[in-house]
Design goal:
The protein has 163 residues and is of the alpha+beta class. Helix content is 39%, strand content 9%. It is built from 4 helices and 4 strands; from the N terminus they run βαβββααα. Strands 1-3-2-4 form a 4-stranded mixed sheet, with helices on one face.
Length: 163
């Protein structure tokens, strides 16, 4: 929902994370793929709870007094990773490539206003997409039924004769 990861199929306890030396990211950290084809999809997610990520992902935490997590989530959508990845058969990102990115950050009140606007407007667009997909499904069903009716002779498809 809204790009927030709230549940996971795999979990570790805080004790296991500590024993593995795994970094635990707090809620509102932004995570994304850092290697392979998934990286080029430019998918970002906000964490909804304390989480560890695997070595195919990267994440960053925000200083909340400087950057609103929702604003930064939306701002990250504007980055085209295909322009900054390490080239090769398996594209990848590393910390220096990410840390050199520049993102204009307006004042906190403006960040909040922008994030609120984008949350509202993209929710409307997502609703329209869902509604349109429902209509497409219904039209495909109507198309299949019409074909079946014509093939099985349940409708008269003969041309009208002139009198």
């Amino acid at each position: 929902e809204n790009g927030i990861i709230r549940e996971s199929d795999s979990t570790v306890t805080p004790e296991i994370a500590l024993s593995l030396g795994a970094k635990v990211f707090p809620p509102d950290a932004i995570v994304f793929a850092k290697v392979g084809a998934a990286l080029l999809l430019n998918r970002f997610r906000l964490l909804g709870k304390d989480s560890c990520i695997d070595n195919n992902m990267m994440g960053f935490m925000l200083h909340h007094e400087i950057a609103n997590h929702r604003f930064m989530f939306w701002a990250m959508q504007r980055i085209n990773f295909s322009e900054i990845v390490n080239p090769g058969t398996v594209p990848s990102l590393n910390e220096p490539l990410i840390s050199n990115l520049s993102i204009a950050v307006p004042l906190p009140d403006e960040q909040q206003a922008i994030a609120d606007y984008l949350d509202t407007e993209t929710a409307k667009i997502d609703d329209l997409i869902a509604h349109t997909n429902d209509e497409i499904t219904l039209l495909k069903e109507l198309r299949a039924a019409t074909i079946a009716d014509a093939v099985l002779g349940r409708v008269d498809v003969r041309p009208a004769t002139s009198q």
